[in-house]
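Pasting as-is:
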Amino acid sequence: MSRGARRDRSTGKVGSSALRDGLVLASLRRHFAVLLDSGEHVECVLKGRSMTLACGDRVQVATTDGGGVIVAILPRITLFYRSDAFREKLIAANVTQIVGVVAPIAIGWLLFRRSQRNASVDV
């Protein structure tokens, strides 16, 4: 333990009294943009490799001078993910609404068919 760090006597963890709750807004590999409950935006990194985060996760952040460290993930209400035969990919957490967009016919094919139809009428 460093000289300036304080140990919380109830939990035995260093600096646990300075944890702040926040919401993950964006992720880029191991860097996360977190909006703290106070309204402050913080650039954070994960404390360990065992945690997997998704946008929308509620987290606990230990703030530092240049950013923050994500220490824990708070319980999720919902989880939106995709999976294949080998692994799962988290997309979003705590989702309340989903909008699906489907394109049944490719636009290029539609334009080709329209030009074919117009060509047969002109003859």
